[in-house]
Amino acid sequence: MRSRPVFVRKDERIKAHFLTCFLSLLVYRILEKKMDESFTCSEIIQTLRKMNMMEYIGEGYIPTYTRTELTDKLHDVFGFRTDTEIVEQKKMKKIIKQTKK
């Protein structure tokens, strides 16, 4: 993973930036642990970025990503699948709602 320079001067913004970075790292470490440390943070991030869906008008969403061992593990950990069927709009809204808890 690469980082870029951050130009913040006020203490409040420095603390906010640190907190954001720390929480991001924590989330990825939790993911690593939930997946039995089978995959690195970099692998998880790259895979999540590639897990795009395309709206199939009137039907729902279909995956545009390639199914892999890592995507299967992510589906197992989170308890829903997006790769084996058209995901209805109603179900997709429910999945999105779950991610915001």
Number of domains: 1
The shape is globular
Q: Could you tell me the strand content as a percent range?
A: 5-15%
Structural class: mainly alpha
| Count of alpha/pi helices | 4
The H-and-E topology, N to C, reads as HHEEHH
The strands making up the biggest β-sheet line up spatially as: 1-2
The end-to-end span amounts to 27 Å
Mind describing the biggest β-sheet? 2 strands, antiparallel
Low-pLDDT stretches are none
Describe this structure in words.
This protein has helices at residues 11-34, 41-50, 69-78, 89-99, and strands at 53-56, 60-63. It is mainly α and 101 residues long. The protein has one domain (11-99). The longest helix is centred in the N-terminal third of the chain and has 24 residues, at 11-34. The protein is globular and about 50 Å long. The two termini are 27 Å apart. The model has no long low-confidence stretch (mean pLDDT 86).
Question: What secondary-structure arrangement, pairings included, does this model have?
Answer:
Elements: H1 11-34, H2 41-50, E1 53-56, E2 60-63, H3 69-78, H4 89-99
Antiparallel strand pairs: 1-2
Structural features:
about 100 residues, globular, 4 helices, about 10% strand, mainly alpha
How would you sum up this structure in a few lines?
The protein is mainly alpha-helical and 101 residues long. It has helices at residues 11-34, 41-50, 69-78, 89-99; strands at 53-56, 60-63.
